[in-house]
Fold each of these.
Amino acid sequence: MTAWMAPTLRATTWSPLLGCVCALAALAVVRGLLDAGRPDLPGIAGAALAAAVVGGLHDRAADLLAAVPVSEVRRRARRLVLLVPAAAGAWGAYVAGEHLHSEPGWPLGQPAALLACGLAVTAWVPGRVGVSAGAAVPLCWAFTAVATPGGAVGDALFAWQSHPWPTCLVATTVGLLGVARSTRDPRRTR
Amino acid sequence: MGLSLDHVTKRFGAHSAVDAVSLSAAGGIVGLLGPNGAGKSTLLRMAATVLAPDSGSLSILGRDPADHRQLVEIRRRLGYLPQNPGLYGGFTPFDFVDYVAVLKEHTDAARRRVEVRRVLEAVGLEDVMHRRIRRLSGGMRQRVALAAALVGRPELLVLDEPANGLDPDQRLRLRSLLADTPTVLLSTHNISEVSALCRQVAVMLEGRIVFTGTPAELADLAAGRVWEDERQDPQALRSWLTSAGSYRHLGEPPSGATVVEPTLDDGYLLLARREHG
């Protein structure tokens, strides 16, 4: 195992993801008991999971580690290597649970699109505010889409559901541009 | 080598936190004195390659931090302690400093462990190195952060108020610790710390360096302008009650006043008063 993996596993902020998984499990139990639910709940659940992954990038020791040779971008990438599979597993379990209750299955594209949007914001917003802003994006977008009536604006707000992979591609490109800017001179992004 | 800043400016919105500052530290310990909000931490963050200046140039250990490759080279040779270092409460000091050593690219595990043990012993944490950080006192946590900065025997140390929370014994230990590093730039509010630690001192007020020299030269600024009296003098620029019960005054002494030897505090306070008008 590489030297960074064990300490990064311990340093990663797991509480948002753990909280989210507990909430999803509770939701699944309640829905099972009541045998009822809203059709937009899986979308909100995916957004919460995406937000939890971005929130997991919060680093308490970021200031102390700001001047080490391994850049913040690389440290965050290492955290994502650990967070994303865990979140994907949780999402898979949730989707399986939804199938058990005869709800339509939810593919990976929608939470991936929301996660990519959150990470893109994190890549562009400097400092520790970036993680909070990035974590807020999936939830804000999903809630706004649910709360907005149909029409052109409403349809556009559902782009993460109707066109998840193009949305994911655009957000990833924007995020990578942010990463490239940070890599050129990390001092400019703090 | 060391550190050289040439007309470095950093603005946050309309506010200039650091305003055309030139400073060099080419060996020994340089102390940065100044009140809260003077721009010390911003200046140190630029010196530690954490923040880029808006204008001006920096040379750190003979390299240009604006160049990515040189930036990484600088960071391999740099130790940085921020003002409020966050730590992972669930880690032990050993684990945390070991993680920092991994991030400082110490790849050989056996050598890394020896180095981690060395710095933890140097800051006096050998007895608690396997206790969780959340169970340590504030002073011990500060020493964990200091140990992290010392990993790899850096050529340049940038320390923002390193003696925060340290007891007198630890402050003495800090002095000998820093003596081993070729160049140290540290900020502090504690003037006695400057006289104990620093070969050179710079005073920063409202984003500008208003004095550079030795601690003795800073004290000399107040030569002939400090006097003590039983009563408070309204003509003095500053007056305060001493522990002996008399008033110590700064300014132009009246005729017949008992002029006393100035201290570093007197020089600093007079300078701060003069600069603020």
Amino acid sequence: MTTAMNSQDGMNKQNGGAVASEDLVDLKCVFERPKSLSDKPFHYCPGCSHGTYHRLIAEMIDEFGFMDNTVGICPVGCAVFAYEYFETDMIEASHGRAPAVATGVKRALPDRFVFTYQGDGDLASIGMGEIIHAAARGERITVFFVNNGIFGMTGGQMAPTSLIGQRTTTSVQGRDPRTTGHPIKVCELLSSLEGVAYLARVALTSPKNINTCRKYMRKAIRAQTEDVGLGLVEVLSPCPVQWGMSPGDALHHIEEDVVKEFPPGEFVDKLAGPVKA
Amino acid sequence: MDLCQIHADRCKGCELCVQFCPKHALEMSEERNAAGYHPAVLAHPELCNGCAMCAQMCPETGIEIYRRQKRARQDAVNQG
Amino acid sequence: MPAKMQLTKGNEALAMGAIAGGCDCFFGYPITPQNEVPEVLSYELPKRGRVFVQAESEVASINMVYGAAAAGKRAMTSSSSPGVSLMMEGLSYIACAELPCLIVNVMRGGPGLGSITPSQGDYFQACKGGGHGDYHSIVLAPWNVQEMYEFPALAFELADRYRCPAMLLADGVLGAMMEPAEISDDAPPPNVPEKPWATNGRNGRAHKNVVNSLVIDPYGLRDHNLKLQAKYKAMECETRWDTRDVDDAEILVVAYGISARLALSGCKLARKQGIKAGLLRPITLFPFPSKQIAECATNKKRILVVELSAGQMVEDVRLAVNGKVPVDFYGEMGGVIPSPAEVCEKIVEAAR
């Protein structure tokens, strides 16, 4: 954040986030970069929700006080550089294997907070075996799953989560269910597994939904910390560039079309009682 | 000082902050930032009440929000 | 309880050797002919408060090893040829990320699903990389049950020293055979070096640790590769080999693992027929004892390489002697195991 400031405001975080000028003492910062998020600017495209989800994860790590206790596992895909954006220990996994890597870490170090960050190609395509079995074993890990219905990093190819009729670079006529099947609904699929303690889906399309996402994330983290089972939060995320839409239109598309295929809500909640403060 | 501080060099011009600002206080700048984007600017600081909708929606975590100390429940935004 | 001599199966010795070597975490998937390894570890590890996980696949196994090794633990997996093939992507990541760990391959006949009978057809895969990119694992080849017990500890030690994967390359005979070996049920814990690079939570550390095999900048990746290559060069001091009756030998037999057992018996039979044959057994297949073979071969008439393959290590032996000594090859495939008499016959042929 040191280089990206407006020059006149004097609020450089290097000064501890304090308000420097004397006439500003009556102001308090109520929304700032979480401490668990590094200063490095995201490489994501304009309007992409990866950055938003990163920020929410960092907020959670701060809120739970886990910065010193966390090992995060990054995917292959757009979020392949996620290890650069968190201030926690991070591991870069091979494509789809983050739940297996997380299993290795969590079994080795059961008192650490272990999360994976995975896209829909990573989790629902190549890594389907790993997430299903991690869920079936009830691994005490938290999965932050980003579903944007497309392979973003590689140039906009069809994903298992692409909508019927969705045009991608490998389904230029639109996804045809006769030859490419139907979208895979991860939350619905995993909800039959006993090892899952918490499952929820939310669209990152508004401040209200972002707040809902926070609530879900807290529960998915508690599923791990309270030793209940695997927790997963799926966010419906826009990919404006590969969808060929403006960022605003992409959010409307999620709210009008994507949620019909992927209904938001909580699918599994085995947590007892309210959030512990 | 403005309640809404936009870090222009982090901005990628996605315009979500402008679209979600309930007070229409934000606009896209005619200028370009170092990365070549037209960044969002607080064009009408007098309209801004520090509600943080823009900051919530900003994918770059490029907006900081300040509130006056005398306000009650000043942490409401972050506590969700 | 001190180590005592007991009649032990190779796979079981290997499992107990892994425990003695300080294995914290085992992740594996069943495959013949190595199933006694996970079976023994599934009750011996938890009993000691260590980790055993039966993974859903070899792909998951190797990635669990990646995670536990990144967390700073001594982690291992065990499999056989087709399963090890599935691990090659993960192994490449582990090598690039410079994580120490142990991979056991109790080789069976290939290619394809092949057979469950013994083979040495995975030499190239084990020693030349196996996965994508320029990397190596340290490869140890035991030839008896005692070494099946001792080599896991050595493999962990070398892996930690060089921050690289180590592979124990055995075969279906060594896994299934029983012979007396000195085994300890409660060996003292080994000295494990500090791992300040481990991603085990910052816990007050001033900086975060990242375990990664992605180096997007070409010059950065070039430099990382140069670093790896320098490490492989530095490993040459770890080369291990064994010789039997080579000083006066006219025929030098080179073989590893179970083939070396057969070859030694073949050499003895040949000596009874008046042909002076001796054995050089590479113990480390990577680093390969090229210099030692070249030195040993200087006064030899011919070299005979014996393998349970179509001829894989023989290429390294030919490179080692660089045309100065003729190199013959005798190999069997598909689980066929030559008798010492058959090896002797080939020695006799070479001596003519």
